[in-house]
Amino acid sequence: MLSLKQRRSLNTLLMGVLAWGVALAIFFPIFWMLLTSFKTEIDAFATPPQLFFSPTLENYTLVNERSDYLHFAWNSVVVSFGSTIIGMMLAVPAAYSMAFFETKRTKGTLLWMLSTKMLPPVGVLVPIYLLFKDTGLLDTKTGLVIIYTLINLPIMIWMAYTYFKEIPKEVLEAARMDGSTLFQEIWRVLLPMSKGGLAATVLLSLILSWNEAFWSLNLTASEAAPLTALIASYSSPEGLFWAKLSAVSTLACAPILIFGWISQKQLVRGLSFGAVK
Amino acid sequence: MNNNRYLSAVMAVGMTAVASSAMAATKVTIGTVNNGDMVRMQGLSEEFEKLYPHIDLDWVVLEENVLRQRLTTDIATDGGQFDVMTIGMYEAPIWGEKGWLTPMKDLPADYDMADIFPSVLGGLSHNDTLYALPFYAESSMTFYRKDLFEANGLSMPDQPSWDQMKSFAEQLHKPEEDQYGICLRGKAGWGENMALITTMANAFGARWFDENWKPEFTGPEWQNAISFYVDLLGNYGPPGASSNGFNENLALFNSGKCAMWVDATVAGAFLTDETQSRVADQIGFALAPQQVTSKGSGWLWSWALAVPVSSDAKEAAKTFITWATSRAYSQLVEETYGIANVPPGTRTSTYNNAEYLEAAPFATRTLEAIGNADPNDSTLNPSPYVGVQFAAIPEFQSIATQVGKLISGALAGSMSVDHALKAAQSITLREMTRARYYSN
């Protein structure tokens, strides 16, 4: 018979093992991609898969020779940050009004916004393509910024709304009584109090925009194509390509992974500083 | 005086603007797939730009299915994003008929159209009008391990029958030694398993549609072909064959795990490449298997370059595709990358070159296979469609993908062959009725 203390230790141990297991399972595809990027094509396709092999940099050299990586990376940076900034500028006021001036239609509106995410994107491909063609937005970074802003906006509003709901109304009322304007109320009181949550929203929007492939492949050609389009160019119907594809995928993932890593500390700090409860 | 100066300045600025716009290079955007021949073409862009300094080439390389969707969206909406499109034998006649492609007329005399294989030109034409210039072409053939055949006292005929293939597979199948009798495509898709299965069905005397566009999946020919395929690959193929496409089988064969493989002739270049293949010096080549007929037993496909009517740089685009499919380009590839890398399957002159035949041991069989394939007469009984491993109608892509999933399911054991064929018949009938090929 285990004592309470022993049971607690066992639970902690089991939870730890489970957490590590889940973390490793999530990380494994990234690890395997990194490993494959240093293999030759024949090693990459070997069965059973090889864990030990002679590493080579030839895939990275080839990607560097064949593609203008910086051009694609710059496009990814511009469209991801551009759409996130514009998205936040729209999401914060929208979430503010919904969280603090709730009407009987607020819940319905929130659900309706989320429901737009349930529509398969291919269903609206042709109308959007025609719209972009007529407005000259095809293969432009502006076009991608607009589309990414629109597709991420429902999630950004939802997240900001959830964080704002946690903040007591009375704090904002007190600021108002002290003579704050609407802008000051949001800028000086609301945003500092919810910066941890908003930082998470920004990071999620950046990741979603960085990884988005459907619209970037369909609405761009050579000028505005981001890194997702570069990855797609290394898949081949005839011929071995896994090692090259892994190399280009590693290069495409690296910036956002590093950014996520760095901002992780800020996020945790922001979350603890933002807590008012 | 001041007015005159002002006028002169304005005129000078205007003339400079006109002159610089006249000198500005025309941008040609090329949508293409990622394969060895296309990558080499991209690598030789600079040579073209040196010859034609007023044309700038811009490349958009995409995975085949993504490219197909991207090009279809662009051309159907008159988007004008691409000046050159890489399309196949399936799209060329359909898009040509719809008036989406610029006819390839008035090509320069030194282009030597007579040098191109007539079957390839025929596959890229509609009503005798050519809509795309062939970059390379392929058929299908049988690859086999000469060492294993020799060790087992077997001999591969020039064109085996499927029954013979089964008998060879039975004798060479040794899964305990990681050696499988035969590798074939099993992955669902109109360009994956259905390419092979359609040629196999052709050999068994089947056809997709009768003269009145009625599907024939419930007939004995399809039943025999698919039962044979499922039995052959299920019993003598590698495990998980229903998810193997070209690349998976290529990797299996290259690592020495397949005794035989029936697939695209372009595989010959990969299999005999010592940097990729562990069995490079043991590869034998035969024609794709026949059964009750040899008609349509080997497919015909070409990747070709076309100019959409929506392009605003048609002349420059045509100049590029003429260069990229010319004999001079083949010469340039030979000088830069070696003769074995010349785009195969399009020009007679390539196969008249003894050096090429020596460098590419699969070349003679490729030539024979392409010569045998006739998209206008690919079935034992007459059929109303053009195409060997496909029917060149807009509905085929969707229908064949659905049928491909059913047959892949039968191979994986999730349904019977009977069930798969009945479902295929029902889907195809519904789609063809909806497309008004006939009314009930």
Structure commentary:
The complex is a heterodimer of chains A (277) and B (440). By secondary structure, chain A is mainly alpha-helical. Helix content of chain A is 74%, strand content 0%. Chain A contains 13 helices and no strands. Chain A has helices at residues 4-36, 41-44, 58-66, 69-100, 106-115, 125-134, 141-165, 169-177, 182-193, 195-211, 214-219, 227-232, 242-274. The mean pLDDT of chain A is 90. Chain B has 440 residues and is of the alpha+beta class. In chain B, strands 1, 2, 3, 6, 7, 8 and 9 form a seven-stranded mixed beta sheet that branches. In chain B, helix 9 crosses helix 10, helix 10 crosses helix 18 and helix 18 (396-412) packs antiparallel against helix 19 (417-434). Classes of the chains: A mainly alpha (277), B alpha+beta (440). The A-B interface holds A 41-42, 45-47, 66, 125-126, 129-130, 133, 138-139, 217-218, 221-222, 225, 229, 232-241 and B 29, 31, 33-36, 39, 42, 58-64, 66, 69-70, 73-74, 76-82, 191, 246-247, 250-252, 254-255, 257, 264, 266-267, 270, 275-278.
Question: How would you summarize what this structure contains?
Answer:
The complex is a heterodimer of chains A (277) and B (440). With 277 residues, chain A is mostly helical. Chain A has helices spanning 4-36, 41-44, 58-66, 69-100, 106-115, 125-134, 141-165, 169-177, 182-193, 195-211, 214-219, 227-232, 242-274.
